[in-house]
Amino acid sequence: MSGAAAVRMAGIVKRFGPVVANASADLEVASGEIHALVGENGAGKSTLMRVLAGLYPPDAGTVGVATGSAPLRDVTGWTTRQAIDAGVAMVHQHFMLVPTLSVAENLILGRELRRGLALDLRAAEREVRDLSERTGLRVDPSRLVSDLSVGEAQRVEILKTLYRGAKVLILDEPTAVLSPPEVGDLWKVLRRLRDDGGTVILITHKLDEVIEISETITVMRAGRTVGRMKTTDATPRAIARMMVGRDVALAIDGVAIGRETGGGRRETEHPRDATSPVSRLPSPALAVENLTVASPRRPNEVDSVSFTVAHGEILGIAGVEGNGQTELIEAITGLRAPSSGTVSIADSSGTLRDVTARDVRARADGGLSHIPEDRHRRGLVLEYSVADNLILGQQHRFTGGATVLDQARIASNAASRIAMFDIRPPDETLPSRALSGGNQQKIVIAREMGRDFTVLIAAQPTRGVDVGAIEFIHDQLRKARADGKAVLLVSADLVEILALADRVAVMYGGRVVVTLPGREATPEVLGPYMTGAQGTAA
Amino acid sequence: MTPPTDRPASDGVARVRAHIEESILPPLVALVIAAVVGDVLIIIFGQSPGDVYRQLLEGTWGNAYGFGQVIYKATTLTFTGLAVALGIRAGLFNIGAESQLASGGFLAALVGLAMPRGTPAVVAVVACLLAAAAGGGAVGAIPGALKARFGASEVIVTIMLNFVVLALLNYIVAAHIHVSETLHTPEMNAGALPRLTSVFPKFAGSAANTTFLLAIAAAAGVWWFLFKTRPGYELRAVGLQPDAAEYGGVRVGTVWAKTMILSGMLAGLGGLNYVLGYKHYYEEGFAGGSGFLGIAVALVGRNHPVGVVIAALLFATLSQGGLAVNALVPKQMVDVLTAVVIIAVATAVPEVRRALAAARSSSGIGNRESGIAESARTQEPPNSRFPIPDSRP
Fold first, then answer.
1. Cβ separation A382–B229 shorter than 8 A
2. Is there a domain that residue B42 lies in?
3. B chain contacts of residue A424, beta-carbon cutoff 8 Å
4. Which of A85, A215, A255, B198 has the most CB within a 10 Å radius?
5. CB-CB: which of A15, A377, A404 is closest to B243?
6. For A380, which DSSP code?
7. Closest chain B residue to A418 measured between Cα atoms?
8. Contact at 8 Å (CB) between A467 and A248?
9. Is the CATH code 3.40.50.300 the one for domain A271-377+453-530?
């Protein structure tokens, strides 16, 4: 069904200051196909697509685009306006919608239909509804964007580009914010667009998605195109090897790539089934009881949540983001005061102690480690050196006397952590800002897991981290479990939860709607709970 | 991912060089811009820029009296500049240095007045010093506490407190303790500091006094506090990323409250220069804008104690130089020049840094290993209200 080339990019070079984002990247996309552009974080995928969409002019190389039956024409260095007019549009990771306007108003923004001096909103809504029916992107045009779920907002973003006549649609990591059923819906929409003659370019680093939806795959590494193949000829392992440049023990082995291992999930590594520390140390290390947390939006952002995590157990909290996970973590770690309920942590003798009244530092000193979900906002002071970030939260333990920092100990701590956790480049004096996302996350992990702890809160521990680092981080979490630590893993990535968790709890609307043993949890079982279709009645 | 390589020996040298370039070059470019604008103004007044600049230098660094005056003025500016810089390091914009300075000077003068004649100098000076710190600290404590407790903007509160505090001080002086026919308090009985004239007779007539040693000690103390102590580490973290500091177990509100007190104390100590070192009494309006100029000093000094001292000397030179060139061009021309320096620093510094970064990328420094993947430009700090370089000397 794919035809002549719709997009041909050759030798694209794009630099940002000292960073070379694209170093001679090529891409050829056939008209009427779904094309996956894969690569690790920082491989240059988004930059290449932004060049195509006219957001950046390339420093070198050519961009050719064909629209309709016309031959390819050179459009190198065009503007977003010209790109949109030619039918090339990009849906970004961060939505660009006005929350206080309705869906229809957002769609017609910039090209308003008028009747006299007034906006003809009714005609606009009719148009939008038609388009929505035609494409299967169902959303009520009269609703306010601020009332929409993330999945619905994404549909509006796609509708917006189609409304403006997009023929080549670029999607940047579209599934990062979706629950499994929503991902399924998105695939249906994309296939329908393709069948109607549209061309779709999908940026992703999730290999299962690549296999499921695409016809052709282009792999990028370090700013270059390193491979192009038909999806039918590809295996996840081959793609991963191409992405990383070496063999990777995929953390998602047997889960996302179930088809490769014959569908048998998690047959790779399961120490807990045989020598489970759970049976030896069944006592809870973290207990949360009837915890209710208010946010500026709602009085019950976390709504009477109770659970325990035992020594040597990983409890996974799954759920679409924004269902109270952030507030739950903040209440457990002391960053936010709950309106009711208690948090207890086991002390050195194994007895649970109520820490609800304690502050962040007291909880950390009591054995609570925390990998925060947003390392750029909370986890690191980006301007601080690697060494200084490696003591954040424990700065009071690195003083000689009462207040003076012990620089020698800070440096030796940094040296040992950098060696132990393989932080690159191995230079503790660099500002943390200068490290890659994966290595920044390793700083956080080295700090939180390199010290003595009983309970670990790991929130989105592998977000924005490359495949190699994901493997490393998952190994660390498994090691913590084997050492008898209690791990609360909060992740929007279901694959990660299923690969690691002994028990899985799903949060929806601030409540834990279901808790299942890991072996019973599958995307199919969890999906309805994640969308609130199941489990909320009670 | 590349295997870890041994860093070449030249790497450290290159980084030190880059660091020096980054801290010296931007203000230098700003000064050149200011000089060019100054040339144009001087030519408009029909004078030769060479003559005017020569006169300016001779009237300041060129003779003992002028130099003494520069030191005197720079002393107050160092204190207020440090006060503002310390606040900015914690993410606070203290616009109240003017009233904190006045309040510190006032309390020092009162304590000096209250002590009996013949009080040992050590006791008297220390008592006045504590009084100045307390006076400034008390004024700084109000916006700090309001911000920590209620989230009130320290910018608004400090601006408004300037009016309140200065009016209150003027009222107390005018209504209760002024020497008749004047707007100042009686001379202190004890606590006066020696002028530099007593050691170097050449400084005759200048107001320079030993308070400048205190200013240098204060700058060294602020440097040590910021970069070598745990509270300093926490303070800078709060200024750069309050959320990360909170995560690191720091009580952000408490740090804000304490920093405002410290900042006010530093500004208050600046009052010693006039009261203990020069006139030995408090006079209405002695602060004379030094508190506000402290904002510019902190800005030009990049909120670094060493930079603050240098910037204080620069602005003191311009201020004194204005008097020296008065015969050739109006004194106000130097005020304009001061403003141009501030604007040039505010605009040129980020530009020059960008250019430096670009130049470095083509020469390959800073991108030697694949671990360095994200440029500074793609990650703006969450708290980018102020340019806070976390540079260490």
1. no
2. no
3. 1-2, 4, 369-371
4. A255
5. A377
6. -
7. B4
8. yes
9. yes
pTM over 0.80: no
Cβ neighbours around B141 below 10 Å, total: 18
**Domain limits at B129?**
78-304
Query: Token pair of A39, please?
Result: 């690569």
What is the residue-averaged pLDDT of chain A?
85
| Residue B177 belongs to some domain of the structure | yes
Residue B69 inside a domain? The answer is: no
Instruction: Decide if B332 is inside a domain.
Output: no
Q: Residue A505: phi, psi to the nearest 5? A: -110, 140
> CB-CB: which of B233, B360, B373 is closest to A405?
B233
Query: What residues contact residue B156 under an 8 Å CB cut-off, 6+ apart?
Result: none
List the one residue out of A56, A61, A78 whose CA is nearest residue A24. A61
Distance in angstroms (rounded) separating the CA atoms of residues B136 and B268: 4
pLDDT value, residue A251: 47
| Contact state of B381 with A377 under an 8 Å Cβ cutoff | no
Q: Is the peptide bond before A282 cis (omega within 30 degrees of 0)?
A: no
Contact residues on chain B for A398, CB-CB shorter than 8 A: 230
**Nearest Cα residue to B337 out of B45, B84, B80, B116:** B45
**pLDDT tens for each residue of A84-141:** 888 999 988 777 888 888 888 888 876 666 666 667 778 888 888 888 888 888 888 8
CATH assignment of A1-87+167-248? Answer: 3.40.50.300
Q: Both tokens of residue A330?
A: 């903040």
Query: Where does CATH 3.40.50.300 sit in chain A?
Result: 1-87+167-248, 271-377+453-530
User: CA A322, A325, A328: angle at the middle one, nearest 5?
Assistant: 135
CB within 8 Å of chain B, chain A residues 310-339:
333, 335
Pair of tokens at residue A506: 């799903």
Partners of A113 in beta bridges: none
Q: Touching check for A468 and chain B: CB below 8 Å?
A: yes
Q: Is A16 on the interface with B (CB under 8 A)?
A: yes
pLDDT band at B27 (very low <50, low <70, confident <90, very high): confident
pLDDT at B388 over 80: no
Contact A439, A469 (CB under 8 A): yes
Are B382 and A376 within 8 A, CB to CB?
A: yes
Q: How far apart are CA A536 and CA A460, in angstroms?
A: 25
For residue B96, the surrounding DSSP H or E stretch is none
Contact B70, B78 (CB under 8 A): no
- Enumerate residues 163 to 222 of chain A having a beta carbon within 8 A of any beta carbon in chain B: 222
**pLDDT digits 0-9 by tens, B305-318:** 999 999 999 999 99
Alpha-carbon span A294 to A302, nearest angstrom: 7
Alpha helices in B187-304 (DSSP H): 211-228, 230-240, 242-247, 252-269, 271-274, 290-300
Q: How many domains does chain B have?
A: 1
Which stretches does DSSP call E strand in B98-251? none
Q: What gap in Å lies between CA A461 and CA A444, rounded to an integer?
A: 9
Give the C-alpha separation, A217 to A243, whole Å. 12
B122 and chain A in contact, CB less than 8 A: no
Task: Burial-class residue A524 by CB neighbours within 10 Å (0-12, 13-18, 19+).
Answer: exposed
Q: Report whether pLDDT(B65) > 70.
A: yes
Q: Which residues of A touch B236 (CB under 8 A)?
A: 381, 384
Chain B neighbors of A434, CB-CB under 8 A: 366, 372, 374, 376
Question: Do the bridges between strand A404-405 and strand A399-400 make them parallel or antiparallel, or are there none, so unpaired?
Answer: antiparallel
How is A505-523 classified by DSSP, letter by letter?
EEEETTEEEEEEEGGG--H
Whether residues A424 and B371 touch (CB distance < 8 A) is answered with yes
